Amino acid sequence: EVQLVESGGGLVQTGGSLRLACSASGFTFDDYAVGWFRQTPGKEREPVSCISIRDAYYADSVKGRFTISSHDAENRVYLRMDSLKPEDTGVYYCNARKVVNVEGALVDLWGQGNQVTVSS
User: What is residue 53's predicted lDDT score, i.e. its pLDDT?
Assistant: First the structure.
């Protein structure tokens, strides 16, 4: 079965650190863009960070504090989150997507989501 398996998250105090991991099960991350979206109650899911073979993207709110890395041998992507703030609280969803044909059709996979809570 093709799926994303997430781990990490939890409760941390302001200024603390956490690491999220996203593993590919039943496929490899070759040619995929992989990243995390964050969702809080009443808001739309928003992109946090993404990595591809070409580049890494960070939302302005996390630049300088979060680091995304890809470990091909493990078929896993990590999001290291430092200097966490209460506004980083939310459910973090791993996403992997790639274009599969010239028409631009996507394979778009989502993990189960992990809660990150930063206490003040």
Answer: 85
